[in-house]
Amino acid sequence: MPIMGIDIGGSGIKGAPVDVETGQLVQPRHRIVTPQPSTPEAVAEVVAQLVHHFGYEGPVGCTFPAIVQHGVTLSAANVDNSWIGAHAQELFMQAIGHDVRVLNDGDAAGIAEMKFGAGKGRQGVVIILTFGTGIGSAIFTEGVLVPNTEFGHVQVRGKDAEHRAAARIRDEEKLSWKEWATRANEFLQYMEMLFSPDLFIIGGGVSKKYDKFGKYLSVRAELAPAQLGNDAGIVGAALAVKDLH
Ligand code: BGC
């Protein structure tokens, strides 16, 4: 039975039913623009719309771009501040009428990459970083996730890493691939100093352009572009539900 995965972002909310045995979307994904302001009630309504779009009945996995602990969102770096302390899981369950699991978007992407993508079968320490509006993160040791790492907020040169090196910043500051990669690499080196990973997986929209910037990255660890692209969040969300049941 497919499980519906939904990926909530600052600009779009997208989802699809996922075959959790293969990691494939069983129907083309559907995207709805994130309502502004992106309040919990407005987002819950879009989540319900997405589920109805597929005529789906069953448990749903949902990513969220913030710390998510036991179904409660505890931060709001790129979404409306009213999410801080919101009972996201409960709100979505009420909107959908089915079980929901809410998890951090970086964690979801990491879960998907470890199961079906660049981290498949990898032991040791693996760090996944997703470069988008912010920087999402996930760390696995021997395949086990430590959730809510929020590495995008570590300080590099006195600023949140994501305020220097998110993909959004590359666009906003019109940085060349080399300029942006130099910043991203400083962040990677800092992560490496702290965790000595065996593998870094570079995710988010930029993963498709890895050939343009991979050559400027230099760390001891192995480096690999993410393989699931924009679907990683959806797939990881669905997988997180499977683990619940
Ligand atoms: C948030 C993280 C999120 C990341 C990517 C950061 O600003 O604090 O929770 O995973 O953006 O969306």
What CATH first level of the largest domain would be assigned? Answer: Alpha Beta
Structural class: alpha/beta
Number of domains: 2
The distinct ligands, each listed once, are: beta-D-glucopyranose
Give the overall pLDDT as a whole number.
Answer: 96
Question: What would you say the CATH architecture of the largest domain is?
Answer: 2-Layer Sandwich
Number of strands: 15
Write the layout of secondary structure elements.
Elements (H helix, E strand, L loop, with lengths): L2 E6 L3 E8 L4 E2 L4 E4 L6 H14 L6 E5 L3 E2 L2 E2 L14 H9 L3 E5 H12 L8 E7 L3 E7 L2 E3 L8 E2 L2 E2 H5 L1 H6 L4 H19 L3 E5 L6 H4 L8 E4 L6 H13 L1
Parallel strand pairs: 1-5, 5-8, 9-14, 14-15
Antiparallel strand pairs: 1-2, 2-3, 2-4, 6-7, 9-10, 10-11, 12-13
Helix pairs in contact: 1-2, 3-8
This protein binds beta-D-glucopyranose.
The site of beta-D-glucopyranose (BGC) has 16 residues, from helix 3 and strand 10.
